[in-house]
Amino acid sequence: MAIASTNPTTGETVREFDPLDDGQLEEKLARAAEAFRGYRTTSWAERADLLRRAADILDDEADDLARTATLEVGKTLASSVAEVGKCAKGCRWFAEHTEEILADVPHDVPGAEVFTRYEPLGPVLAVMPWNFPYWQVFRFAAPALMAGNVGLLKLASNVPQCALAIEDVLRRAGFPDGVFQTLLVGSGAIEGIIADDRVRAVTLTGSEPAGRQVGAAAGGAVKTSVLELGGSDAFIVMPSADLDDAVANAVSSRMLNNGQSCINAKRFIVHTEIAGEFERRLVERMEALTVGDPMAEDTDCGPLSSPDAVETLHQQVRDTVAAGARLRTGGEPLPGPGNFYPPTVLTDIPDGSPAHREELFGPVATVWHARDADDAIRIANDSTFGLGGSAWTRDAGEQQRFVNEVETGMMYINKYTESTPEVPFGGAKNSGYGRELAGFGPRTFVNAKTVWIAPTEQGSGGVE
Questions:
Q1: CA angle 239-240-241, nearest 5°?
Q2: Residues in domain Aldehyde dehydrogenase (predicted)?
């Protein structure tokens, strides 16, 4: 894939970049290894100060950074501004809490001083997607840099200006040369970078096929890996729910980032008692959304990321309808320039259809009917994915059942799934493994070293 900024609103190629050649890539890997030797010795206070400076730059330049993201991705300008703000929040949160999270952990062993010390691993490769080009990176980078690691970023090839902007922000914040570098390379270079002895770990957010490849490469190289892959999150609505609130949040969650988020609510599982009214209100709200230029203040839904994304989504919709689903609204790409697909609602989803088994990465909502809580849980778990999910009910017993029985990495009650620095983030099943954010973020890319200090007069010995 070419490394280029192509405006998804117009189809215009704005800027192209030459990928790194082998010699340039080698220089960056060598620089990362050298930078780690010095950076790992910096104090908590020094690292925290650097992250806070990065947060200040993000806040001060939020509008310009947001415009770059909207230009390359097509998300609404308001959502891009919010994304930059979340990155600043993440930098400050990890600057404040990482020293405590990674403090030595004492162990009660009579006659000796024993503790676990967390030490950084070294250069970490981050393979990140285009849909949240800033947040996906900073939710890795902030805790990893605070832990004393250095970062190598391979961001998706359609957002090179965002990738370079992140490196520039961290450089201007004062991080030493080589501590965080953007690698403008194609996906074919990833396996070789993982295999390089100087790279000590890898994290990927992306598709399930990409995750399988990266996970296999990391396993072959015996290196730590974290995978955050696709999702087809369930959004369960029971009769006791506030229906107005549930429908409003259903639309907000499904349309987040023009419907292109791994944690969008995608499968709306509604009790038969209220399904008809839920569907009517959902269709009404989806049809009321404004599709258009993401730079405009009144736009609710911008374009998809690429023509291929439109074609893939449309084929999934067509095949699902051909299998017997009912198209309630939308369902046809919009004419004219740009990669526009309308807010779409499908009901009566047949078993085995694309909407049943695949992730629909775009503004398409699918509605399922459930007879009771048992049936809702069955439908929710009838997926190879298990990233996030939510349930809308005032019944305490139902709330506990959904928390305990829906197979997912995150379960929200009367709130749709989101990521925030204070809360762990990650999935189950084919949605990946490992966790990001909160205490898991700093502890992911560290060596948990056991230290045992015996009294000087005590001899050694014993058995393993």
A1: 90
A2: 3-451
Q: Is the pLDDT of residue 212 over 80?
A: yes
- Helix (H), strand (E) counts: the chain: 15, 20
Q: What is the largest CA-CA distance in the chain?
A: 83
* Triad 228, 209, 316: Cα angle to 5°: 100
Q: How far is CA 89 from CA 85, 131, 135, 173, 284, in A?
A: 6, 19, 10, 15, 35
Region 35-62 average pLDDT: 98
Which regions of the chain carry the CATH code 3.40.605.10?
3-229+431-451
Q: CA–CA separation, 75 vs 357, rounded Å?
A: 26
pLDDT in tens, 345-380: 999 999 999 999 999 999 999 999 999 999 999 999
CATH ID of 3-229+431-451, from 3.20.20.120, 1.10.357.10, 3.90.79.10, 3.40.605.10: 3.40.605.10
* Active-site pick, 83, 167, 228, 359: 228
Name the band, by pLDDT with cuts 50, 70 and 90, for residue 460.
Answer: low
Please indicate whether residue 359 is annotated as part of the active site. no
pTM of the model: 0.96
Active-site residue, 228 included: yes
Residue 244: partners with Cβ closer than 8 Å, 6 or more residues away: 281
Which residues lie closer than 8 Å to 86 by C-beta, 6 or more apart?
135, 420
For residue 254 the two structure tokens come to 């499904």
Give the active site residue among 262, 359, 398, 436: 262
